[in-house]
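Supplementary Methods S3. Input chains for the assembly prediction are listed below.
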Amino acid sequence: DTGVSQNPRHKITKRGQNVTFRCDPISEHNRLYWYRQTLGQGPEFLTYFQNEAQLEKSRLLSDRFSAERPKGSFSTLEIQRTEQGDSAMYLCASTRRPSGSADTQYFGPGTRLTVL
Amino acid sequence: AQSVTQLDSQVPVFEEAPVELRCNYSSSVSVYLFWYVQYPNQGLQLLLKYLSGSTLVESINGFEAEFNKSQTSFHLRKPSVHISDTAEYFCAVSEVEAGTALIFGKGTTLSVSS
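Predicted structure tokens for the full assembly:
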């Protein structure tokens, strides 16, 4: 396994711009999760996919946020009309089995977003 | 809904001293319990987890945690820490029956000095 990868690692943008992040999970992992981590806080769940289906979305995921996993492999997270409050580390994680909650989630290094 | 409280935001200790990082959780349903570690400039890694069975679980690098259902706690301990244990430690829970997302605490920064 090469691990979960995320690109870019850092993104600086101006308020109002759109940004897109990519996550490549570990090969053959069925589930893919997105979390957000702000300074001094633990990661907070945003959404998850089982294969290409988005099965759950947190209330944190406003309508400016959209996530996709079109072929059940990599995933993208887009934020439209960014706000300064969107500045955070965005983490991606994946698990092998579809049964979920007992499985170890393997995390990527994260994408740090700074909105000026 | 579940919540996780890590009672100490920072724990400074000297090398070879024992350490305990405290974690309490709140949930109306059965949960699985996890400790994740984040070393400087690295991603989150699983340290250990409690699913069922023996309430004492151990990691490969000498950490252990004990699930205490009556006190709703899952404290992490190590009898003798090393400089290399300096990291941020996160306690997390997930719902057994239906949950998939991890609910994390705010984290505890363990700083080990010589």
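The interface with chain A takes residues 4, 9, 32, 36, 42-46, 49, 51, 90, 92, 94-96, 98-107 of chain B (CB under 8 Å). The radius of gyration of chain B is 14 Å.
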